[in-house]
Amino acid sequence: MAVFALATSWPLLWGAYAIAGLDHWASWAVALGLLEPLGAMCLIGAVFFVAPSAPLSHLFAWASRRARFTLLGLYIGSIGAIVVGLIYAALKTRGLT
Predict the structure, then answer these.
(1) 3-state DSSP of the chain
(2) What is the torsion angle, in degrees rounded to the nearest 10, for the CA atoms of residue 57, residue 59, residue 65 and residue 69?
(3) Can you give the pLDDT at residue 97?
(4) Which of 35, 48, 42, 31 is nearest to 8 (CA)?
(5) Nearest-10 Cα torsion for 36, 39, 44, 47
(6) Are the beta carbons of 66 and 37 closer than 8 angstroms?
(7) How big is the CA angle at 26 (ends 22 and 30), to the nearest 5 degrees?
(8) Does residue 60 contact residue 44 with C-beta atoms inside 8 Å?
(9) Cβ 16 vs Cβ 35: under 8 Å
(10) Among 6, 14, 90, 94, which is most exposed with the fewest C-beta within 10 angstroms?
């Protein structure tokens, strides 16, 4: 499990670093709001899986809480986009737009 967590954290953190280099607010929002919290949680999770009682593994609770809020925001945003799309399609079908 630790190897999987390390293998997952590398592309997330590298992607956050690469996207943050674009110098645009949207790329920074994706990097710092989505990729970095999930990558940090996976990286700290790898330490947690190897040594659950290590002092560094206490950061796992903080990182998982931050990643949980990130995933919740992503979920709410996705549901909102689907609902807006369905409302738009319904209005377009009725000829109201």
Answers:
(1) CHHHHHHHHHHHHHHHHHHHCCCCHHHHHHHHHHHHHHHHHHHHHHHHHHCCCCHHHHHHHHHHHHHHHHHHHHHHHHHHHHHHHHHHHHHHHHCCC
(2) -120
(3) 67
(4) 42
(5) -160
(6) yes
(7) 90
(8) yes
(9) yes
(10) 94
Count other Cβ atoms within 10 Å, centred on residue 35: 21
Report d(CA 91, CA 69) in Å as an integer: 33
- Kindly give the confidence (pLDDT) of every residue in the chain, 97 residues in length, as a single tens digit, with 9 standing for 90 and above: 888 888 989 999 999 999 988 888 888 888 888 888 888 888 888 887 887 777 776 777 777 777 788 888 888 988 999 999 999 998 988 887 6
- Any idea which residue has 């990182």 for tokens? 63
Please answer whether residues 49 and 56 qualify as being in contact, where contact means their C-beta atoms are separated by less than 8 angstroms: no
Residues 31, 16 contacting (CB under 8 angstroms)? yes
